[in-house]
């Protein structure tokens, strides 16, 4: 018998990333991980390339330059920011710092899978609140959370549904929770949302000491490979996260590329504009095939399939894969009849619609 890990660790089913392979197809189109259709800022590539001769040096453990660049670009205070190896790491750090075994963690029904993993790693008790129409239901979260929940995780907008709740609703949620509950607002897709009633939650985190916002460079900045995220919140929380992070948790390439990327507002705007155009196209075209598409403000759409033999989500997944198009099964989220497709380039989006059209006609 091997050495036993902590109780509960072996119950964890490791996170399964979006596939990048279609059997027998040389160069498949990958629309399974919500990556940026436009790539990333050329300025970020240049900045990363420039540090190649410095690979023998440790990075600045505090990522000061990057935090200052984020603060300047976003109108924030650098001391209220902590960076991480992807926002994933920041979510893990929140669990490590705040969760005791047996603590209660609440999320919305189809919330991002990593929250469950964080809770399980810490031996916390994980509960989901039901959604309505694939949308976060604040009343259900308040009812589920009660007054003894340590963390509420809310992806806004959420992956894999693509839906969001308004700033007013987020504030109503915060008001309804006790101040002993930390509200984690995961705003990974915030930059894609142009709706006037939406907020990434930065103002709320500035006003309160029981809210933290996490952000990522993986989506609008197209830097998923480098693993870079940041969190903004009250200094009391930021100080705690600095204590539990690794001494050099963000690497030098990420610091340099991230600093260039956050300043490249033109690339960010082009990414958001491209997305707005093509997410609408996918929704309209795929909806026109008789498939239900959940309204999305993100860089992906959730497509619902019938249970009819030959036309199920699993059938569609296999068909698309045979045509070299990889999208994402979401049964791990309790959505066995749906698939999630990332917004791609114009050509990729048109190929996806054409293949789905052929699938539905077949
Ligand atoms: N939150 C949400 C809602 C996500 O969809 C993702 C990425 N799939 C993340 C956080 C993690 O992003 P990253 O670690 O790349 O910053």
Topology record:
Layout: E1 29-30, H1 42-50, H2 64-74, E2 81-84, H3 86-98, E3 104-108, H4 114-121, E4 125-129, H5 138-145, E5 149-155, H6 167-176, E6 182-186, H7 202-207, E7 211-216, E8 229-233, H8 235-244, H9 252-263, H10 265-287, E9 292-294, E10 300-304, H11 313-322, E11 325-326, E12 328-330, E13 335-342, H12 346-361
Parallel strand pairs: 1-11, 3-4, 3-5, 5-6, 6-7
Antiparallel strand pairs: 2-8, 7-8, 9-10, 10-13, 12-13
Helix pairs in contact: 1-9, 2-9, 3-4, 5-6, 10-12
What features would you describe in this structure?
Helices cover 38% and strands 17% of the residues. With 362 residues, it is α/β, with parallel strands linked by helices. The protein has two domains: 127 residues, Aspartate Aminotransferase, domain 1 (Alpha-Beta Complex); 223 residues, Type I PLP-dependent aspartate aminotransferase-like (Major domain) (Aspartate Aminotransferase, domain 2). The strands form three sheets. Strands 2-8-7-6-5-3-4 form a seven-stranded mixed sheet, with helices on both faces. The chain has a four-stranded antiparallel sheet with strand order 9-10-13-12, with helices on one face. Helix 4 links the parallel strand 3 and strand 4. Helix 2 runs parallel beside helix 9. The longest helix is centred in the last third of the chain and has 23 residues. The radius of gyration is 20 Å and the shape is globular. The mean pLDDT is 97. 4'-deoxy-4'-aminopyridoxal-5'-phosphate binds next to helix 3.
């Amino acid at each position: 018998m091997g050495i036993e890990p902590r109780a509960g660790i072996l119950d964890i089913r490791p996170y399964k990333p979006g596939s990048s392979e279609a059997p027998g197809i040389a160069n498949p189109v990958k629309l399974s991980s919500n990556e940026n259709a436009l790539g990333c800022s050329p300025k970020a590539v240049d900045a990363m390339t420039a540090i190649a001769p410095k690979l023998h040096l440790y990075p600045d453990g505090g990522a000061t330059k990057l935090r200052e660049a984020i603060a300047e670009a976003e109108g924030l205070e650098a001391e209220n920011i902590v960076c991480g190896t992807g926002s994933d790491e920041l979510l893990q750090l929140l669990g490590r710092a705040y969760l005791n075994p047996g603590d209660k963690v609440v999320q919305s029904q189809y919330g991002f899978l990593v929250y469950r993993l964080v809770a399980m790693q810490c031996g916390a008790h994980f509960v989901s609140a039901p959604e309505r129409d694939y949308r976060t239901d604040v009343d259900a979260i308040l009812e589920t959370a009660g007054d003894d929940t340590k963390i509420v995780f809310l992806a806004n907008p959420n992956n894999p549904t693509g839906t969001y709740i308004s700033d007013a609703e987020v504030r109503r949620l915060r008001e309804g929770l006790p101040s002993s509950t930390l509200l984690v607002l995961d705003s990974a897709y915030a930059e894609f949302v142009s709706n006037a009633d939406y907020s990434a939650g930065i103002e709320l985190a500035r006003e309160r000491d029981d809210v933290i916002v996490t952000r990522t460079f993986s989506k609008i900045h197209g830097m998923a490979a480098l693993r870079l995220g940041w969190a903004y919140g009250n200094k009391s929380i930021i100080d705690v996260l600095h204590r539990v992070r690794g001494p050099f948790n963000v690497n030098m390439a990420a610091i340099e590329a991230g600093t260039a990327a956050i300043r490249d507002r033109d690339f960010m705007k082009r990414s958001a504009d491209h997305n707005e155009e093509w997410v609408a196209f996918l929704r309209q075209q795929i909806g026109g095939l008789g498939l239900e598409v959940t309204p999305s403000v993100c860089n992906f759409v959730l497509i619902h399939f019938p249970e009819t033999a030959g036309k199920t989500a699993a059938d569609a997944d296999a068909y698309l894969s045979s045509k070299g198009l990889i999208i994402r099964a979401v049964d791990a989220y309790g959505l066995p009849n749906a698939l999630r497709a990332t917004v791609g380039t114009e050509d990729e989006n048109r190929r996806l619609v054409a293949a789905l059209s052929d699938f539905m006609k077949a």
